[in-house]
Amino acid sequence: MTIEPLSEESLAPFTRLTLELWPECRYEEEYLNAEKLLRSPQDAVFLGKAPEGEYAAFIQLSLRHDHVEGTQSSPVGYIEGIYVRPAWRKSGLARRLVETGEQWCREQGCTEMASDAELGNTESHAFHQRMGYEEVNRVVCYRKGL
Asked: How far apart are alpha carbons 17 and 57 in whole angstroms?
């Protein structure tokens, strides 16, 4: 398994992977988002590619300059999303993606990383803890239509 940055050639496979993680999204919109990520100096995407050429995983990162809960610096490297296809889970691929992402963030001047997970996503909570991340807060968001 190799790790490579997002490229013009991997836009479509990356978009398909994002729809596996976020199935409520639309392909066309996510493809346009991927094109923006490719050209953004504030964002990075790295993909895991199997020897036979199949893309099996990704990590999407951003540099956040606004306040990030539990951090003391700016910018903060932020894991916006990480996904590994089921057949490749427990292979160490996710750890390699996180390490690659953390290195990219260090190269951008970050001294801290952050991420988030839905309150009920206990699998993601356990993953973050295995990667060395500590929980800093829990929040429930509300809205009201007017």
From this structure: 7
Please tell me the total number of residues recorded for the chain in this structure. Answer: 146
> What are 28's two structure tokens?
């066309």
pTM, to two decimals:
0.90
User: How far, in Å, CA of 60 to CA of 64, rounded?
Assistant: 13
Residue 114 falls in which region: left (phi positive, over 0), alpha (psi -120 to 50) or beta: beta
Omega within 30 of 0 (cis) for the link into 75:
yes
72-114 per-position pLDDT tens digit = 899 999 999 999 999 999 999 999 999 999 999 999 999 999 9
Q: Residue 119: CB partners within 8 Å, gap ≥ 6?
A: 138, 140
Q: CATH 3.20.20.210: does it fit domain 2-130? A: no
**Domain residue ranges of the chain, discontinuous segments joined by +:** 2-130
3-state class (DSSP) for residue 11: helix
**Can you tell me whether residue 6 is helix, strand or coil?**
coil
Q: Is 36 left (phi over 0), alpha (psi -120 to 50) or beta?
A: alpha
Q: For residues 134 and 39, what is the distance between their CA atoms, to the nearest angstrom?
A: 31
35: its two tokens: 């094109």
